[in-house]
């Protein structure tokens, strides 16, 4: 068991029997009363967020975590297959764990996977991903008076808005936070 003052942003706590990722921590005091930690956490099992007070006299259970770099290989009925580039071991993650990241999984791209107590919990996407445009309509000549955009389908099946000059076969950078076009790669 650890002290609440050891709780930091990015740590994983065992709270009510589930792993919770700490999003924000503030130490507070109220007059003559003992101080407490105001902790905002996200449940890694179901994705819900919660905010709680932990008194400085309480004990907290900080779980052992590891960030492992894995390369995405392919998808089949068993799940999403990743390869450890050091041991060449095949790691299978189920679809519930991948969630919104599946639109950004490009073959041979490395991703950070958060392991809590040697069990994969979540995938951490980089700020941007380079993907190939597989389908995009031709731009209309003369339609350049303003920032005109058109839909483009990427290699993972994700459809985003891109400028008119982007053609099929080009590699572009896509922001993972807002699914937006960031530029050519």
Q: How many E strands? A: 14
End-to-end Cα distance, whole Å, is 47 Å
So what's the oligomer here?
single chain
List low-pLDDT spans: none
Features:
3 domains; mainly beta; OB fold (Dihydrolipoamide Acetyltransferase, E2P); five-stranded antiparallel sheet; SH3 type barrels; 14 strands; 1 helix; elongated; 185 residues; 51% strand
If you had to describe this structure to a student in words, what would you say it looks like?
The protein has 185 residues and is an all-beta fold. The model has no long low-confidence stretch (mean pLDDT 87). It is elongated. It folds into 3 domains: 4-55, SH3 type barrels (Roll); 65-124, OB fold (Dihydrolipoamide Acetyltransferase, E2P), CATH 2.40.50; 128-184, Nucleic acid-binding proteins (OB fold (Dihydrolipoamide Acetyltransferase, E2P)). The strands form 3 sheets. Strands 7-6-5-8-9 form a 5-stranded antiparallel sheet. It has 1 helix and 14 strands.
Walk me through the topology:
Blueprint (H helix, E strand, L loop, with lengths): L11 E4 L2 E11 L7 E8 L5 E7 L9 E12 L2 E5 L6 E4 L1 H4 L11 E7 L2 E6 L3 E9 L12 E6 L4 E5 L7 E5 L4 E5 L1
Antiparallel strand pairs: 1-2, 2-3, 3-4, 5-6, 5-8, 6-7, 8-9, 10-11, 10-13, 11-12, 13-14
């Amino acid at each position: 068991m650890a002290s609440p003052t050891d709780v930091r942003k990015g740590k994983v706590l065992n709270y009510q029997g589930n792993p919770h990722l700490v999003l924000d921590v503030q130490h507070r005091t109220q007059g003559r009363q003992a101080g407490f930690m105001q902790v905002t956490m996200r449940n890694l099992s179901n994705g819900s967020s919660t905010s709680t007070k932990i008194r400085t006299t309480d004990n907290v259970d900080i779980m052992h975590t590891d960030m492992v770099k894995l390369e995405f290989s392919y998808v089949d009925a068993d799940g999403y297959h990743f390869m450890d580039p050091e041991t060449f071991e095949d790691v299978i993650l189920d679809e519930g764990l991948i969630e919104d990241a599946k639109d950004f999984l490009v073959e041979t791209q490395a991703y950070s996977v958060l392991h809590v107590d040697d069990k994969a919990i979540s995938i951490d996407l980089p700020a941007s991903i380079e993907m190939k445009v597989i389908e995009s309509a031709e731009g209309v000549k003369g339609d350049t008076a303003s920032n005109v955009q058109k839909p483009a389908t990427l290699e993972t099946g994700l459809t985003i808005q891109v400028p008119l000059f982007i053609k099929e076969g080009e590699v572009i950078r896509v922001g993972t936070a807002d699914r937006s076009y960031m530029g050519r790669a």
